[in-house]
Amino acid sequence: MRGFVLTIFTVLMALSASAQSDYIVQTGKVVSNDGTVRFVEPKSTIVVDVTVEKREIIVGPYARYAQKYLGVRAPLSGKESYSIVGATIALADDALLKATASVATPTVEVISHSGNERDFARLLPHRIDSRALTADEAAAEAATAIFSLRKSRFELITAQAGENVFGGGLESALREIDKYENAYLELFFGKELVSTTTERITLMPSGDKFNYVLWRFNDKAGLVPATDLSGEIIMLRIEPSGDTSLKHITEAGDKDKIQIDCRVADFATCIVSCGTEPIAKRVLPLFEYGRSFKVAK
Fold it and tell me: Taking a C-beta distance cutoff of 8 angstroms, is the pair 285, 238 a contact?
């Protein structure tokens, strides 16, 4: 029995010079060096990750006064939109995939003028009395503050003010002015949130099937289940090469009494597409589209 194990080991080692050497396995009953018996049926597990970006417009509380006091129109209604920004295809035992064990961590970027993601800065216009301001009056005072800050910046840059402000002190002062101006601008123009999320799906292909619907994509809702007909189909298409030739091994003939069952993978092209647009492509060795053969002991 030990001689049998060494024979198949030698045969497989002879394949090391071949591009397919790592993708030929002994199948059926396999006996390890320690005598352990196991039954091997090679399978491929494909992992597909798709990363979606979400852009969300949050309207500023003074948006409807932007044209009146700043001369520029601001968005008056919120909006969400989605786009696919990346996709990957790998085998489950891919070393890089194992190193990253889970899908990418969601990220959020605030394209806005002040800190918090969704809340607007509580900026009070300069007040000279305690009366309540209407929204129009508050917007007018916020606009006045913006122009005042811009004037201060200009005077600092042109040395018309702050004679003793220079170097690091000048940079610090300008940063503070920018911070306050941007916070006021946000009250008019709102903010934009950009977030990314990655979804993963794992599947085991079948040798008689070449197309797999993974999700659907809707530019107003992002990734949705494959059963949701409101979006474009995200599909994995597998195109086997048909080349399962063996360059460094001779297959067993009819006269060989003891034969060892093996299987070679097909290097298939895997394409993930959204609608008609490819978003990822990779060649993977897939046993399901390969072929079985025998070698002599």
Answer: no
Q: How confident is the model at residue 75 (pLDDT cuts 50, 70, 90)?
A: confident
Question: Per the structure block, which two tokens stand in for 279?
Answer: 């978003």
Q: Are 188 and 65 spatial neighbours (Cβ–Cβ below 8 Å)?
A: yes
The answer to whether residues 250 and 224 touch, using CB atoms and an 8 Å cutoff, is no
End-to-end C-alpha distance for the chain, whole angstroms: 11
Which of 243, 240, 245, 246 minimizes the C-alpha distance to 207? 240
Q: Do 152 and 223 fall into the same domain? A: no
Phi, psi torsion values for 220, nearest 5 degrees = -110, -10
Could you count the other beta carbons within 10 Å of the beta carbon of residue 123?
15
Both 90 and 191 in one domain: the answer is yes
* pTM of the predicted protein model: 0.71
With H, G, I as helix, E, B as strand and everything else as coil, classify residue 290: strand
pLDDT in tens, 279-295: 999 999 999 999 988 88
Tokens 């911070």 found at: 179
Instruction: Answer with the one of 182, 203, 224 that is the final residue of a domain.
Output: 203
pLDDT tens digit sequence for 120-145: 666 555 555 566 788 898 889 889 99
CB proximity list for 77: less than 8 A, separation 6 or greater: 59
